[in-house]
Design a protein that fits this description.
The protein is α+β, with helices and mostly antiparallel strands. The protein has three domains: about 55 residues, no CATH class; about 160 residues, no CATH class; about 60 residues, no CATH class. It is built from eleven helices and ten strands. It has a four-stranded antiparallel beta sheet with strand order 2-1-10-9. Strands 3, 4, 7 and 8 form a four-stranded antiparallel beta sheet that branches. Strand 7 and strand 8 form a beta hairpin. The radius of gyration is 22 Å and the shape is flat.
Length: about 280
């Protein structure tokens, strides 16, 4: 039973079933997410005594490539958000505040994007944040300094250019990384797992046996509608397409397709259209 369901019972108001809560979360905080993925969120929140309606964790689509088979599949993974670290620090009873982010000098870097174009990006060299903690009646400071070049996420595995979010918010993204590190140093009990904000678009090495590419961004609503239209206009069997989507990418619906997988999906649709045209 979820934390939210228990809270409703204690308030003596009509309790929502877990299925009803999943439906609410799917239509609000986690649009496009599969029911099983939202259920994992609820299980995580129940174990940690968290309110899922506060969105303390994120559903992160990950493409997992097995180096032994060479096959990749998309799966949803639950990762903590920076908000969860803040909640855990506050619950400790020793949280004494966090400093405003301090940034180093601006730098200009030249990068090559996924289309082979050269782009110039202005970014802060580093960000420093101090977390304050009460220890034996006195305030102890824990400082974290993170460098932009060591933290930014690229727009693809074949590019060194920052992705859309790191270009749009170079300071905001780096500040989240510095804050997460400061909170981990001050409260090791929050865990060693990186936050979803830190891992967006990054490549993770998993035990040397598989490569994981994480990206919190799913395809947009317009992109999903365009795929629906292409399938309908070309009389493609939707059931067969969804079965391929589930088997190849681990996505249960078109809306669940992760952004990096979009080119593969479009190529598959185009190939299907060509095969139908030859018949």
């Amino acid at each position: 039973m979820s934390e939210l369901t228990e809270k409703k019972k204690s308030d003596k108001s009509p309790a929502m079933s877990d299925d009803e809560i999943i439906s609410v979360l799917q239509s609000s905080l986690y649009p496009g997410a599969a029911a099983d993925s939202v259920r994992m969120v609820m299980q995580y929140c129940t174990a940690a005594k968290l309110d899922p309606m506060q969105k303390p964790v994120h559903i992160v689509p990950m493409s997992v490539k097995n180096t032994q088979t060479g096959r990749s599949e998309w799966r949803d993974v639950i990762m903590p958000g920076i908000g969860l670290y803040r909640i855990q620090a506050d619950r400790s009873g020793t949280y004494a505040g966090i400093s405003a982010p301090e940034f180093g000098p601006d730098k200009t870097g030249a990068f090559t994007d996924k289309n082979g174009n050269r782009v110039n990006v202005v970014y802060p060299e580093w960000c420093r944040i101090v977390a304050s903690k009460m220890v034996d009646g006195r305030i102890v400071e824990f400082t974290a300094q993170e460098y932009w070049l060591e933290n930014y996420a690229s727009d693809s595995s074949k590019s060194d250019a920052p992705n859309r979010m790191w270009r749009k918010r170079p300071r905001g993204q780096l500040a989240k990384c510095a804050e997460a590190q400061a909170l981990r140093k001050a409260w090791p009990e929050v865990g060693a797992a990186p936050t979803a904000e830190e891992m967006e678009g990054k490549i993770i090495d998993v035990t040397g046996q598989s490569e994981v590419i994480a990206d919190t961004q799913r395809i947009t609503e317009d992109e999903a509608l365009a795929i629906h239209a292409k399938i309908t206009d070309n009389d493609i069997d939707l059931a067969k397409f969804l079965a391929w989507l589930k088997k190849s990418l681990g996505a249960s619906s078109i809306e669940q397709i992760a952004k990096p997988a979009l080119p593969d999906v479009l190529r598959m649709i185009d190939a299907t259209i060509k095969r139908k045209a030859k018949k």
